[in-house]
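Action item from last meeting closed. Structure (312 res):
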């Protein structure tokens, strides 16, 4: 059963098209990732699905409700964790949750029990009466997730949930997201520009670039598009297309100063590639071998990497 349905969804700001005719369905109980660089249209898509922006055209249904005509019903069925921290830092964790519950008209008895439940869920029971200004970045993220769960949402939206967090804290947040999905059966939509985050968490990934969905499938199936090991050669790329003539090269993606080759048993092919380069006067600066990643898929469909689009 589809918990989210979108068809030909468009959002324009004057002459700029931020989301360009996207369509996708999300199944109930799924973790669905929108993966792409900054400015790709991910957050704009989330804002339309959470009723914060009206679509320019197209249709979006969340929990069976139309985001344009049934906004209140959509809002009652969703939880949202925004990219930027939206907590009152001069209130305690518990007070932030109480205020959120009050906004949703939750009865007092139910409110108290639910606050204890969601605090325990994100391991913040002992920090309930601490001012949020004294929380770490990871603790604030966990509190925001707890707040998003207060009113029993059917869908939880997470916009760049681990942005700016260190690696250890990021992995803890991933564990909480997986637990919410598996043990609580909460459908989760997340936006991210971290390939490893989308790969680790999601059942399906929609790769979005310049407002368009360029690929959508499971992480495994997307990586199978590449199919083989990837050897990246850094060089002056004037003559790098010659590598396509080698019989074991399945695919070649050319860029400014490197070429990515898809080959079987990559570690065995590296000496042959180096010999071929030397024989053809091609100077190789560096060689890197790795298994296919979502970064390689993004490169295949867009001709560049997410890191480069982000200016990294």
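Sequence:
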């Amino acid at each position: 059963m589809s918990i989210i349905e979108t068809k030909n969804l468009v959002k324009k700001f004057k002459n700029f098209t931020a989301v360009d005719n996207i369509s996708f369905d999300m199944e109930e109980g799924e973790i669905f990732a929108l993966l792409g660089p900054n400015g790709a249209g991910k957050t704009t898509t989330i804002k339309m699905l959470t009723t914060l922006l009206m679509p320019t055209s197209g249709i979006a249904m969340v929990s069976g409700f139309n985001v344009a005509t049934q906004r209140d019903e959509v809002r009652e069925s969703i939880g949202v964790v925004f990219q930027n921290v939206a907590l009152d830092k001069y209130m305690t964790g518990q007070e932030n949750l109480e205020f959120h519950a009050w906004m949703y008209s939750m009865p007092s008895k139910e409110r108290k029990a639910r606050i204890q439940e969601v605090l325990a869920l994100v391991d913040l029971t002992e920090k309930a009466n601490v001012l949020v200004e004294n929380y770490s970045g990871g603790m604030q993220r966990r509190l925001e997730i707890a707040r998003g769960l207060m009113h029993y949402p059917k869908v939880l939206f997470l916009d760049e949930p681990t942005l700016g967090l260190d690696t250890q804290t990021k992995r803890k947040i991933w564990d909480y997201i997986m637990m919410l999905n598996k043990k609580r059966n909460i459908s989760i939509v997340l936006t991210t520009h971290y390939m490893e985050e989308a790969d680790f968490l999601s059942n399906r990934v929609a790769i979005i670039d310049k407002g368009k969905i360029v690929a959508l499938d499971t992480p495994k199936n997307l990586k199978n598009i590449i199919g083989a090991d990837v050897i990246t050669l850094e060089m002056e790329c004037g003559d790098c297309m010659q590598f396509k003539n080698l019989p074991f090269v399945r695919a070649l993606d050319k860029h400014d100063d490197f070429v990515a080759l898809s080959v079987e048993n990559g570690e065995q092919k590296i000496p042959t590639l180096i010999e071929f380069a030397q024989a053809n006067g091609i100077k190789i600066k560096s060689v890197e071998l790795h298994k296919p990643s979502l970064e390689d898929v993004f490169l295949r469909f867009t001709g560049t990497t997410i890191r480069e689009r982000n200016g990294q």
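Note appended to the action item: The chain has eleven helices and 14 strands.
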